[in-house]
Amino acid sequence: MSYKSVKKLKPFELVLQKELMDLDEIEGIELNQINENNLEEISVSITPREGYFINKTIKFVLKFKDTYPITPPKIVCITKIFHPNVDENGNVCLNVLKLDWTPAISLQMLILGLLILLTEPTTEDPFNIVAAEVLQNDKRKFIEINNDLYKRK
C-alpha cells in the first residue's frame, strides 16, 4: 500500500473515529457512515423498547462540521414523527445541542439523548408546540398520530 492511497483524516474525523470505536453497544440502536470517504454524516436508527415510539425504527442523521467537538453536530430526524422536540422539517432540538453544549459531550451521549427523546418526550420548552399540547392533553391522540405517520412511511 502506498502512502498516497491513505486518506488523511481531518481532526474532527479523528475524534469521531475514536468515539465510534469507544461506543458501548445499545440495544435497538444502529449507526452507519453515510459516505465511506468521510465522517461528515452518520445515520442513527433507533428502535426504542419502551415509550411512545416502542418498536418503531426512527432514523436520524447527525451532520458534523470541521469544528466538532467545539461545536455540536446538527441532528435531523428523517423519519416523519410528531414530537415536541422535532419540527415539521425534522430538525431536532436537544438542550445539549444548544445552551448545554460542551466539547466533553460525546457521540455516545448524543445517541443516548436521542433515545431518551423518543422514550420520554418532554413538553417543556417545545420545538413543536402543537405536538407538545397534544402530548400534554391527549396521550392517546399523540400515539394515534404517530402510528398513522409511521404506517405511511
Describe this structure in words.
This is NEDD8-conjugating enzyme UBC12-like. Keywords: ATP-binding, Nucleotide-binding, Transferase, Ubl conjugation pathway. Strands 1-2-3-4 form a four-stranded antiparallel sheet, covered by helices on one side. With 153 residues, the protein is of the alpha+beta class. Strand 1 and strand 2 form a beta hairpin. It contains four helices and four strands. It starts with 10 loop residues before the first helix and ends with a helix.
Output the keywords.
single chain, 153 residues, alpha+beta, Ubiquitin Conjugating Enzyme, 4-stranded antiparallel β-sheet, 4 helices, globular
Question: Could you name the ranges where pLDDT drops below 50 across 5 or more consecutive residues?
Answer: none
Q: Rg, please?
A: 17 Å
CATH architecture descriptor: Roll
Name the beta content range.
Answer: 5-15%
Count of discrete domains:
1
Helix share, percent: 25-40%
Mean residue pLDDT: 92
Q: Give me the secondary-structure category.
A: alpha+beta
Separation, N- and C-terminal Cα atoms: 44 Å
What is the string of helix and strand elements? HEEEEHHH
Fold topology:
Layout: H1 11-22, E1 29-33, E2 41-46, E3 58-63, E4 74-77, H2 107-119, H3 129-137, H4 139-152
Antiparallel strand pairs: 1-2, 2-3, 3-4
Helix pairs in contact: 3-4
Put the structure in a nutshell.
InterPro entries: Ub_conjugating_enzyme (IPR050113), UBC (IPR000608), UBQ-conjugating_AS (IPR023313), UBQ-conjugating_enzyme/RWD (IPR016135). The protein has 153 residues and is of the alpha+beta class.
